[in-house]
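Subject: Sanity check before I submit

Could someone independently write out the structure tokens for this chain? I want to compare against mine line by line before I put it in a report. The sequence has 472 residues.
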Amino acid sequence: MLGMWTLLLLWGLATPCQGLLETVGTLARIDKDELGKAIQNSLVGGAILENVLGTVTSVNQGLLGSRGLLGGGGLLGHGGVFGVVQKISGVKIEELTLPKVSLKLLPGFGVQLNLHTKVGLRGSGPLGGLLQLAAEVNVSSRVALSMSSRGSPILVLKRCSTLLAHISLLSGLLPPPLLGVVEQMLFKVLPGRLCPVVDSVLGLVNELLGAVLSLVPLRALGSVEFSLATLPVISNQYIELDINPVVKGVAGDIIDFPQVPKPIKVPPKKDHSSQVTVPLYLFNTIFGLLQTNGALNTDITPELVPSNVSLTTTDLAALVPEALGKLPPGQQLLLSLWVKEVPAVTLQNKKATVSIPVNIHVLSYLPAGTPEDLFELNGVLTLNAQLVPLATKLHLSLSLERLRVTLASSFAHSFDASCLEGWLSDVIQGAYVPKLNVDLDVGIPLPKVLNVNFACAVLEIIENAVVLTVAS
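---
Independent answer below. Compare away.
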């Protein structure tokens, strides 16, 4: 029975979700090229060699600098472990090429990781003259992908082996017995030093993978906490992470609105690219956070509207004179907007729209006096949302598409509120929409996936989600 459950688990790990995605999470598909790039970059700086071999003293020196792996006092330089070789045969390490990384994803398990490097040796031969040797080394390792105790994806080295391909004499003379000594030293020392390098490479990559578990602040509104919803899934081409975004208020309380998860038909991932799918749920929850914090409420006074928009009783007299009662023309107005329900975001047909139910109080406005209620409207703002991917978030910019209002109450006479829609649209587009865009500058947070920069992503709006594709 235990074996059957194990088979079912491995089957799930080996089969990324296709078709409809019944989840509210953010789906990240990391291309194997992106993983290979992260491993290669971890080798370039030299920090790994410094930690494992104790040889690199400056990341700027890299592998081949005077104080790097091959410099004086290093592992392969004068005074290092290869000093033994130098005493025996007069040979020292002169060059080590930056390891070339190749990998293969193993569905249901993890990664087959290979490092290939070349070692150059130089010295004075025992018979005189310049002596140059070259050796090729392959390091092969099997790495499992699992989940750490804190819930982050983690790569674990399960097996590591090395193969010294061949040693060739490039120039000079070396008696066979001494060549055998050099070979023995390389077989004994070099492989034992390279497997710890692999383990440390994985340590740095795991730090990048662990950044998926992050808390992203939303300024004064709250935060979004990302965590893994399920075990990582591996295919032949990519690693799939189902990331759960939890939106929290300032006090740490979870902001969750009862919503029926809407299925998402995730498009196939393109070759040599990574993909992140941002669900509709996250958009709606962020707008819900704005609504519960009162960030969507505002008062619009004449000073806040553009100069080409008038906010006086004269405008009302031309449209709905019965709404003024005994108020004279030319008196200033105050519009008080209240959003008492959570806005609804729609993602479909390559378009993003936001519907905001709004309650509009229209009052006469005397800067030195008390505002006087005139009438109250119920309305719905429909706004187009322009989405732009940035490095760590989706930026939203709204523009008013239309406004529909109905009369809720009037202190004078009833009237047809639709006559005010054009005038109110100018007021809201000029004064309210800019405020919304300032509040929305927090954007829709994106999870940290290795070192992927989403600013270069191609954005596609599909039904109930936004898909970001980044070339590897």
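---
OP: Matches mine. For the report I'm noting this point. The CA atoms of residues 59 and 176 lie 39 Å apart.
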